Amino acid sequence: MTPEDVRRIALQLPGAIEKSHFGKPDFRVRDRVFATLPKVGDAVIKLTRDQQEMMCAAEPALFRPVDGGWGKKGWTRVTLAAADERTLRSALVTAWRNTAPVTLRKAFDLAGG
């Protein structure tokens, strides 16, 4: 997958917009970041610690915690070259759900998202 794929999938999610975080593209819902594109070949997504542990254990070539304190808060690096569309979409939706307000998540669930 590519940064353009991340952008396309992220911006399909309700209320998602693209902004910039320290000069790098990020994706937000209600001004809260759920994903970033910090460097070529990687995306970073906001997971819970439990989600992070599960995803990293299941697919260590694809997911790994961000170094340092942010990784301990659930921020997780995604190696785009190892991702397929279905897995990337699922990871981005999970990060979006972790960030979006309850009302927006419920509307998305009712719409079949």
TrEMBL record:
Keywords: DNA-binding. InterPro entries: YjbR-like_sf, YjbR/MT2646/Rv2570-like. Pfam families: YjbR. One of its GO terms (molecular function) is DNA binding. This is MmcQ/YjbR family DNA-binding protein. The lineage of its organism: Bacteria, Pseudomonadati, Pseudomonadota, Alphaproteobacteria, Hyphomicrobiales.
